[in-house]
Structures are given as structure tokens and as C-alpha cells.
Amino acid sequence: MNESMELAENLHRILAKYQTSFSEKVYKEENDERDLLMDLFALTPELKRENRQYWGRELGMCWQLLVTEVCRQRRADFAPALRFGADEPCDFVVEPYAIDTKYRIGSGDSGTLKKFRAYGEMLRERRYKPALLILRDDNLPAALNACEKGGWRIFTGENCFQFIEDLTGFDLKTYLSQKAGDYTVLRD
């Protein structure tokens, strides 16, 4: 199997898993903005508002797995998440970057902000360039400022997709756009 077929198959496996998970979820608040992952699963802003925490967590993990898989397949220098004791300050490494992925950053609690700063400093001390790849553009400004103070380079929305393409040669944005609706969440 060639590398492109393997990548496509692995990306399909990740997306199909989330399609099933989202379809089995029993769904129980005011942003009407859409993004490529929402379009992929045909999720409406109304549905997402029914359980914002669930969707944010699950779409965030899906985003992390997709970006990680693209980098794992396309970069020979890919390395899994770094661990420093109990801390895991990034999702993976592609030299010289220590990369963390987020669907969106909406938490502004002091513990979260301190963690962002500390992790960025921890990675820079070890000579990595911390890079935060955030799918959405509607992030909490205080959280982004805390990340920048910790030395993170922040890429959101279109800039995030461009960074991934520059790093790997794979156009994840076009791939996801072409798959829009292919993994529709099935509801009763």
C-alpha cells in the first residue's frame, strides 16, 4: 500500500469512528459559526449548543487525531507526545516544533492560563518551538495572550491549515472540505 493510500485509510478510520460515536450520542447555548469538522459530520450550531462541552471535547480529540496522523504519515522526524513527569505539554513533535492541537480555546480560568504559559516555557527551555494549532478562530483572547506569553506560536483557522500544509505537504483543509457531509451524524 502506498503512503497516500495508507494516510487516506487511516484518516477515514478516524473519521468513521467519530461518526459512529457522534451518532450514538444522546443529545441533550449561541455561536452560529461553522467549521470544517462540523461540516464533515453535518453538525449544526444548534445541535452543538445542546451539549457544548461534549462537542468541544470530542471535536477537539478528533482534530488532534487528524493532525497527528497527517504529521505521523508525512514527516520522518515525527515523535509522539513529550512527557516531563506527569506533564504532557504537547501532542507530538516535528522538529523543531513541539505541537499542541486545540479545536478552540474558550477557558480563561487561571489554572488553564498558567498551564499554557508553563508548558510553553518548558518546551522552549528544551529548545523546541512551541506551536499551537487551533482549528477555530473564535478563541478567548485572554487564553491566546497567555499562550503567547509562554512562547507559543499560535495558528488559528486558515493559518493553522497553511502551517500544516507547509509542514507536511498535505492540504488537510481541502481534504476535509471534499469530505463535508460524508460522515453525517445519524440521529433517531
The gross shape turns out to be: globular
At CATH level 3, the topology is Trna Endonuclease, Chain: A, domain 1
The main pleated sheet reads as: 5 strands, mixed
Radius of gyration: 17 Å
Mean pLDDT: 90
- H-E order: HHHHEEEHEHEHH
Total helices: the number is: 8
Which ranges are low-confidence, i.e. pLDDT below 50, for 5 or more consecutive residues? none
Which strand order spans the largest sheet, edge to edge or round the barrel? 1-2-3-4-5
Give me the secondary-structure category.
alpha/beta
In total, how many beta strands? 5
Helix content: 40-55%
CATH class membership: Alpha Beta
Annotated CATH architecture: 3-Layer(aba) Sandwich
Structure characterization notes:
There is one protein chain. This protein is α/β, with parallel strands linked by helices and 188 residues long. The chain has one domain (3-178): Trna Endonuclease, Chain: A, domain 1 (3-Layer(aba) Sandwich), CATH 3.40.1350. Helix content is 53%, strand content 12%. The chain has eight helices and five strands. It has helices at residues 3-24, 36-40, 45-50, 52-74, 110-125, 141-149, 157-168, 172-178; strands at residues 78-80, 92-94, 97-102, 129-134, 153-156. The chain has a five-stranded mixed beta sheet. Helix 5 (110-125) packs parallel to helix 6 (141-149). The mean pLDDT is 90.
